[in-house]
Amino acid sequence: MTAEAPIVLIVDDDPGVRDALCGLLEAHGMRVAVYTSAEDYVRAARPAVPACLLLDVELPGINGLDLQAQLTDADHPPIVFLTGHGDIPSSVRAIKHGAVDFLTKPCSDEALMAAIAAAFIQDRRIRTERADLERLQARYRTLTPRERDVLPLIVSGLLNKQAAAELKLSEVSLQVHKRNVLRKMGAPSLADLVRIALRLGVPVTHSRRGKKQA
């Protein structure tokens, strides 16, 4: 195992269950971190590698379902519930709020490993998407104030002449800013720039529709 290997974060107050899970997961070449309560988990630092949160429902203090609700808008690994106190309402609630799976004890090793593998895949995808967005945000920060004014106009479908008029620029100046925006944002084409703008949440408030064409 390396420091870059995925990790399973176990939150369970039963030492026998924790020991059994650690032995199983480590035998499959996985790193493991254990917590005896939701509060212990919340206080811990989030891993910098793909992870899975293996969570019991019945815990001292905050239970597993309430912890999941608290983490809804937080940066946390995908959750797999593993509990001896499962029922249909609990499983529906867990899955509705994004859990990868809801397993009841005892479950087969195959089912558990499949759920953890699915959580790793999901976390890798989320991390990739987050890193891509951070790169786009860094590129956006390199734009000048005027280039930031130009960006929403050109992705809204305005003609160069219309966008230039909107900003009280010459058409030549508008074209220069447009080229700079495409280059700085790493967009090979206007269509690519539109997709980037959507990822960044750049408001698209103009349209050719209803405007007099030049």
Question: Would you mind describing this structure in some detail?
Answer:
With 214 residues, this protein is of the alpha/beta class. The longest helix has 33 residues, at 109-141. Helix 6 crosses helix 8, helix 6 crosses helix 9 and helix 7 (160-167) crosses helix 8 (171-184). The protein has a five-stranded parallel sheet, sandwiched between helices. Strand 1 (7-11), helix 1 (15-27) and strand 2 (31-35) form a beta-alpha-beta unit. The protein is built from nine helices and five strands; from the N terminus they run βαβαβαβαβααααα.
Which short descriptors sum up this protein?
214 residues; disordered C terminus; 5-stranded parallel β-sheet; alpha/beta
Please provide a brief summary of the model.
This protein is of the alpha/beta class and 214 residues long.
Shape: elongated
Which segments are poorly predicted (pLDDT under 50) over 5 or more consecutive residues? Answer: 207-214
Q: Largest beta sheet: what is the strand line-up?
A: 2-1-3-4-5
N-to-C order of helices and strands: EHEHEHEHEHHHHH
**Number of helical elements:** 9
How much strand?
5-15%
Ends apart, CA distance between termini:
64 Å
Mean pLDDT: 90
Rg value? 24 Å
How many beta-strand runs?
A: 5
Helix content: 40-55%
Largest sheet: 5 strands, parallel
What class do helices, strands and sheet pairing give?
A: alpha/beta
